[in-house]
Amino acid sequence: ALKVNENDPTTTQPLVSPDFPVMSDTVFIWDTMPLRELDGTVVSVNGWSVIITLTADRHPDDPQYLGPDGRYDIKRDWEDRHGRARMCYWYSRTGKDWIFGGRVMAEGVSPTTREWAGTPILLNDKGDIDLYYTCVTPGAAIAKVRGRIVTSDQGVELKDFTQVKKLFEA
Question: Which reaction does it catalyse (predicted)?
């Protein structure tokens, strides 16, 4: 941290223009985890790139996120996103036009109410994936869930992420 300098572009995040394109207007997206091999190499499967993101629905019509003037308070909604964080996946042929695939795990599979960042590892050429992630509230644990990737010319599905195993708890 001592080497970080606000005037050094190699140690600071670049400014992001307000008109930077977003992947979705209906969900918030933050921590992004590409599909990797065990050695850390980012991989594609049959020409498809896959990312897993922490995702939360936006609530523009929820009264608790409307300001005194009746307008949507996106800042307050964004600040509350962690309480409803879920892991979702996206896929792309180009790495620019991402298609929303949906939740990685169905509601109720994770033993906690929040799903937080992790790492998806492609295990073999059969499409088996281990997803290591943090499950939070109640408590906190590092967990693993195994599923698989299925691809076609039309898209990608992540399937069978149904059995979560807690590896250790804090």
Answer: [6)-beta-D-fructofuranosyl-(2->](n) alpha-D-glucopyranoside + sucrose = [6)-beta-D-fructofuranosyl-(2->](n+1) alpha-D-glucopyranoside + D-glucose
User: Contact, 128 vs 155, CB < 8 A?
Assistant: no
SS3 category, 113: coil
- 70 Cβ contact partners less than 8 Å away, ≥ 6 residues apart: none
Q: Which of 64, 60, 145 is nearest to 105 (CA)?
A: 145
pLDDT > 90? residue 6: no
Yes or no: say if 147 and 159 are a contact pair by the CB < 8 Å rule. Answer: yes
CB 157 within 8 A of CB 90: no
Residues in CB range of 78: below 8 A, 6 or more apart: 28
Give the helix/strand (H/E) hosting 135: strand 128-136
Domain ranges of the chain: 27-169
